[in-house]
Amino acid sequence: MPWALSALALAAAGWAGASQARASSRLAIAVFGFSLLVAFNTLVISPAYTPAGLYHPLLLTLAFAAFRRFDDMTERRAACAALGLGALLSAWGLVQIGFLGVARANALFETPATYAAVINLLLVPALALLLCGVRRASIVGIGALLAAALFAADSRGGLLGLAAGLGAAAILALRAKALRGRSVLLVLGVLAAGWILAAGLRALPQGAPGASGPEAPPTLEARAASSMSRLELYDLSWRAWLERPLAGTGYLTFRYVLERGRSRAPSYGDSNETWFAHNDYLQTLQELGLLGLAALIALAWLPALLAYRRVPRMPLERRPVALASASGLTAMACHALVDFPFYVPVCLMLYGALLGTVDRRLGEGLERKVRTASTPSWYRAARAALAVLGTVIVVRPLAAEAAADWGLRRSAAGQPQSAAFWLEAARRLDAADWRYHWYAGQFWDGQAADSGRRDAARFAADAFATGVEANPLEVRNLLGKISVHRRHGKLLDAPADAATLAKWMAQAEALAPLNSAVRRERDLLGAAK
After folding, report:
1. What is the pTM of this model?
2. Which is it for the CA torsion 271, 274, 275, 280, positive or negative?
């Protein structure tokens, strides 16, 4: 739901604030090429479909398309809105470390690394504007607040991104002959003020109420162990790519790689979970193959290269925003070496917005004139058909999620008939998503256990089996199928025999050898014999 609402807001903003159509560019080709590749892999190649593979490229593309069509006034308003939201996020992160006892700020995000990536996409462009001589009190104040939030997050990847972004800003400012000594001192002063603010709040005696007190920041030993654990993830991702070097393992399948190879990642134990290899380039290589890696590299590094080439030819007054946008993009491109910002929807939206901004500025005076003649009727019809098809594809997961959520609510409220209708509707709306088969299987399994109905047991077995076919890498539906045949075999018309159950169990152990649920089902199956 948040993804769909964000996409709708971006589409509305792009339509309302658009000034004119623009010719295609190298950055446009990189954005649309990467997005189409991710969507195609998700729908056609990947054995583990996920709606994120549709919405991630959609959000990136819509943000890019909207901002490259904005005029200067609309662009300025959008930037002010983004900085305002960034200020609120920064304030919340500072409250966390100063008054709630949190060791590393994360605001509304799951991890401090994600929080730092979002902050950098706003902070680095603001600092780059200061480097280029744009001295405004509002930018200085918000820059100091954003810097404090970045230091409060205590993310090594975030600091790496900050350093890379500022380095790119300095190089581009020198290239544009806009760098001045006073500007450098001002940026250093803003960073120093942010660090002092974060350190002062962290040193406050009050923390989160409770016996445990405030959280302790990570020690050097913990940071070293975290770095070593990432090397384990890199090894898993690399080995997975070697198994499928051309097409890759499928978008967002790293979690299954970790589940299958936990013995090679002892720091993650048998239950710690992550969807990310903490290196977007390596994970993209593993999931999308060599073509995907090439597309991501173009998306990440082409903006800075184009900015370096074209900045000297730009009018002086147009250079600061272009340099600031390219610097922010470089910050995230470097952060992606040690974390996963290219898999975070809000980062993709902000990245797309900066891409659209830099593409518009760099392309001014260089693009070919857009053809204004009337387009053929067949072209308009084909474009409309593609738009309808794309809308259906991205709306279907939203409808399925809404139906499944309502069905689960009806089940919790003790209304099995309504729950059955909506859960089965979710399965049919988005049959490629394994989750809805699993939800329905659990519901029917509970009905069979409570009432002993043969049809409920049959529906449960069918739901779990369909879920295994939808995503053969996910072990939960396979375990559900084994459990139904083991416990409700007498209610099924064709229960699995001992040899078949043993075969299914071997498949589950191959998918997740250290998973506690797999070991528990194996013990129960052994006891049943």
Report:
1. 0.93
2. negative
